Amino acid sequence: MKKILLLNGPNLNRLGKREPGIYGVTTLKELEEQMVRLGAENKIEVICFQSNHEGALIDKLHEAEDTGVDGVIFNPGAFTHYSYAIRDAIAGITLPVIEVHISNVYEREEFRHKSVIAPVAKGQIAGLGLLGYELALEVFKREGKEEE
Ligand code: DQA
Fold this sequence. Notes:
Number of strands: 5
Strand order of the largest sheet: 2-1-3-4-5
Distance between the termini: 12 Å
Shape: globular
Bound molecules: 1,3,4-trihydroxy-5-OXO-cyclohexanecarboxylic acid
């Protein structure tokens, strides 16, 4: 069974309450439950983790690499824009990481236009709301199909 880590960074624990006009009214718990359900329907185990702390996110990426996870769906929150430590952690593992942003970061403040993660990510999905997470899962679902 494929194993995918759903990783959410700072302030995403506040989904549903935090700036609902931008991030919507769905809570992180609801998002995680939906992703686990969608994964199960597709024979994919989805493991969920959220942290507001840079080091904890880095530890989780290392752990994912060492415990047979097949890919990571990662919304690094504001760390996206400046965390070289998270970027290095992704560069240092072999796992494919798909970067997801709920909002369209490119139509927002200038500081959100730069992602230090994107160059080491498999790809980036931004501005499609929570659907972006599901689309990332779809990518991992299709991956490797050819070899089966
Ligand atoms: C975000 C966009 C980031 O700029 C912001 O800091 C977040 C959420 C998004 O999902 O749209 O925390 O990653």
